[in-house]
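Supplementary Methods, section 5.1.

A reviewer requested that the exact input to the structure prediction be made available. We therefore reproduce it here, unchanged from the version used in the analyses.
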Amino acid sequence: MPTQVAGPPPTAEETWLQAAQRGDRAAFGHIVQRYHRLILSLAYRLGGDAHLAEDVAQDTFLKAWRYLPDFRPEYDHSLRAWLCRIAHNRTIDLLRQQRPHTDLPLGHPTAAPSPLRQALTAETTLEVQAAIRRLPELSRTALILREYEEMSYAEIAAVLDIPIGTVMSRLYHARRRLAEELAPLLHTGALL
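The structure derived from this sequence is encoded token-by-token as follows.
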């Protein structure tokens, strides 16, 4: 008699997701705990404002709870990418409502400064922030997701709802534009 081969056991996240989709608030609480910092960080880096980031995180998880029964990993790629897409869209909506832009910081407000950031002068930091802020919205978001959130091209494509080739193109152009704008700082040694 042939035996059926069982697939791998579900991960904790898959178990929480399935339970949350059935209305289990405690399971959804685990999802919130797992992704809250990521969503805060993404919203903060996109918007540069801690209060805005808190609002985005709250709105993101409220919307996720509401639409979680419709979430399909095979279509939405991953829970992480889906939550980031919700957070990205909400951040952009709130930024559009409150123009002008606030400064875009390089790091998370509670993160310890990196050695590179410690080495930068305040003036250089402002110039780098301004250069990032001048990038087109979707290129800036792709750059932040890749360089700060360390997402794969596929995850970025899912968050932004664009093909992977477009992600690669936007990252290439964003990096090239930053290199051009920051070239004078590189020549003076301010970024070294």
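The CA atoms of residues 23 and 64 lie 12 Å apart. These observations are discussed further in the main text.
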